[in-house]
Amino acid sequence: MAARPQPYLDDLNPAQREAVELLDGPILMLAGAGTGKTKALTTRIVHLLNTGRARQNEILAVTFTNKAAREMKERVGRLLGQTVEGMPWLGTFHSICVKLLRRHAELAGLKSNFTILDTDDQLRLLKQLVQAAGIDDKRWPARQLSGIIDNWKNRAITPDKVPAADAGAFNHEGPKLYAQYQARLKELNAVDFGDLLLHMVTIFQAHPDVLDQYQRWFKYILVDEYQDTNVAQYLWLRLLAGGHKNICCVGDDDQSIYGWRGAEVGNILRFEKDFEGAHVVRLEQNYRSTPHILAAASSVIRGNAARLGKELWTDKNEGEKVRLIGHWDGEEEARWIGEEIEAMQGGTRGMRGMSLDEMAILVRASHQMRAFEDRFLTIGLPYRVIGGPRFYERMEIRDAMAYFRLVVSPDDDLAFERIVNTPKRGLGDKAQQTIQTVARANGVSLVDGAALAVEQGLIKGKGATELKLLVENLARWSSMTKGQAIIEDSDELLDDGSQVLNTVRFGEPEVSHVELAQIVLDESGYTAMWQNDKTPEAPGRLENLKELVKALEEFDNLQGFLEHVSLIMDNDKGGDGEKVSIMTLHAAKGLEFPAVFLPGWEDGLFPSQRSMDESGLKGLEEERRLAYVGITRAEEICTISFAANRRVFGQWQSSLPSRFIDELDEAHVDVLTPPGLYGGGYGAAGMASPVTQAMAGSDLHEKAAEANVYNSPGWRRLQARSAERPLSQPRETRNTVIDASAISAYTLGERVFHQKFGYGAVVGIEGDKLEIEFEKAGVKKVVAKFICSADD
Ligand code: ATP
Ligand code: MG
Question: Which residues are involved in binding ATP (predicted)?
């Protein structure tokens, strides 16, 4: 038989070709971003099929997301010139393990129709066990236990193998409760997410015959994004590849970003030890990004100590430098990006016109998305959110909105149903049914039905007390939306001849709708519910709630805000036209876009506060890898931005540009003049690096004029707004009148040092407080005892 043509090999460079054609034995492709690892992996599948080495269902190919799996299947199909129907074992670890476990459920003590529990079910179960053990679940919340158990499962630790070091977990009850939990799952014929891998590893270890069967069946194993595998996934792969050892893994240690979920970058580093005689292929040519983008990314990742280190090159044209722009605040950032995207569609600053599909905004934290979503809806810019619900569709946002809806309209039964037992008020299905029945019988809303049901003693115990409180609270919060009732005499005559005797109007409410929203979330116990929640998602949910309250500031009252959101949700149905993508940096792994926006590069946001507070550099290094992932998603245009101020709970907080900005090699960065930058106002934002300092430089106005910034609507708006800024803003603190006659150990102009803000010069003295213009942190008032002279 004549050999089939192999045109797909022509698209590869020699190193890739080697990785594709070397079909036998273990092989590791360890290479930087955009070097064609995924492309080589896909081509390898094609080559295996084309050369008849394996049939479609004999190849095990693991990707990180379902989206990646779909894309890989499509690409294989394209290269083969036929649709791929039979690749059942191309998918994520979880999707593949579900299939395997259904086949061998009985070996794990399950039936093949086992159910997969979601997080809620898992928690309910754990809570029952915690309570049954007589443990105070206020002090020891079930969520914490679930985090501990997930962690064990990620490390492939079964209840009988919990290491001595972990014996003290969850007040020393952790290991026992873990065992009980697993037993209970078995009784329920159920598994949780972590079990999928854990059970398969256990089955393979305990049943060599089963393992042997699959070792032979899967002739070739391929794994993308290997740097992000956890211990359980790693063991599972090693077991399966143990026979023929035809395993091909690709990854990049610089892109390991799931350490917080138990991923072990060490897996990739010890591949050569695990698989003797492993062939390591290094790819160095990057096909994705322009030289400037690549160099900027390299300059950041160089800051990490723990890395293998590799150099990338590209033969692409130089292209645009990475663009850096600072903004006055977060809203301005969103506004600017919206305008820039529209400009880029038409082709701006000598760039080609781009389609919205070619642009993406990659954020560090999901709560950042809200500002963009709101802005884009306002200007009618189509967008999609990838890898998670859009802001207003998130569970915690919907819950909070349900409370607000009830405050505005107590008849909103759907809202009531949503929150009546969230947080838990001891109102089970039966109690809720009673409320429904009473409401229907009396033709009243559920809120009123609830009040009646309590009054008539149809609901008892803790549930009744809590329900009564909820109903009373709702009424009280509602009344707070209005001010005092003012009754005025009237002699107005109506058209029908009747006379109005008096009118009631309401004065200004005593609390603003923003404060009220916070009160509702706090007094209802909703905030506390997430504060007590120990799952990894909880901090994110609290951030989103803060973001929600912040969003309210842009509206006059709750009602206006709720209308806005319902319009947004209605708008949601958008068709399949071009759209800008918005997603987190984590979700962007493996993807690429011609134009990428990276907003919010501020210390505390990116790198995250948590990583900065942590002792040691582990967290910070993971954040830096995330920065590297972000920049390397861009093909042609990469725009990094930061805001000098972000509003948190109606308070302006000034923030410092991210330390990662300082690390960017300025030779590859172009500083764009922000529309609102004039008169050195950004000094307050702190100018640390040469790059950020350039923004305050003397050629600033020239640059701005060149870019025609002074004529932009954004500039004009910002100038107008800056005139009406309240005094609380950093810019004004510069002008505070200081009584310099007060006795102080410091003199005006003296150079001083502060633990947190670094070096600065004293610009004002007021009793024991000094006003200092810090070199990095801008002007701040600090207590003198926290300061020392820079000469000390
Ligand atoms: P990441 O680390 O971000 O996952 P990667 O190493 O998997 O990146 P790919 O996504 O496979 O990189 O490839 C990056 C881009 O380069 C893709 O658009 C791909 O089509 C292109 N590419 C890869 N190899 C070649 C090649 N030999 N010739 C031309 N283009 C290539
Ligand atoms: Mg890839």
Answer: 31-38
Identify the residue whose tokens are 């033969």: 315
> Measuring CA to CA, which residue among 11, 15, 166 is closest to residue 78?
11
Fold equal for 7-102+199-285 and 292-390+572-723:
yes
Dump pLDDT digits (tens) for 644-653. 887 654 567 7
Whole-angstrom CA distances from 338 to 36, 371, 372, 565 are 31, 11, 8, 19
Backbone angles phi, psi at 107, to 5 degrees: -75, -15
* One CATH from 3.40.50.300, 3.20.20.80, 2.30.42.10, 3.20.20.140 for 292-390+572-723: 3.40.50.300
CATH top-level class of 115-188: mainly alpha
| Cβ of 42 below 6 Å from ligand 1 | no
pTM of the predicted model as reported, rounded to 2 decimal places: 0.70
CB 367 less than 6 A from any atom of ligand 1: no
Residues of the chain with pLDDT under 70: 1-3, 118-121, 387-390, 484-488, 490-507, 567-576, 647-651, 674-746, 755-756, 767-768, 783-792
- Residue 503, marked binder: no
Q: Report, at the CATH architecture level, how domain 395-531 is classified.
A: Orthogonal Bundle (1.10)
Contacts of residue 143, Cβ cutoff 8 Å, sequence gap at least 6: 123, 532, 533, 534, 535, 538
Query: ipTM of this model?
Result: 0.99
**Atom of ligand 1 at shortest range from CA of 35:** 6
Class of domain 7-102+199-285: alpha beta
**Helix ranges, 156-207 (H):** 174-187, 193-206
Beta strands 651-654; 634-648: pairing state: antiparallel
Residues whose CB is less than 8 angstroms from the CB of residue 430 and which lie 6 or more positions away in sequence, other chains included = none
Q: Is 2.30.30 the CATH classification of the domain at 736-789?
A: yes
> Ligand 1 within 6 A of 590 CB?
yes
In this structure, are residues 596 and 362 in contact, taking their beta carbons and an 8 Å threshold?
yes
Q: Where are the domains of the chain?
A: 7-102+199-285, 115-188, 292-390+572-723, 395-531, 736-789
**37 CA → ligand 2 middle, Å:** 5
Size of the chain, expressed as the number of residues it contains: 792
Please give the C-alpha separations between residue 406 and each of 336, 367, 471, in angstroms, as whole numbers.
35, 24, 10
Kindly name the residue from 38, 63, 65, 692 that is annotated as catalytic.
38
What integer pLDDT is reported at residue 669 of this predicted model?
Answer: 94
By alpha-carbon position, which residue is closest to atom 23 of ligand 1? 36
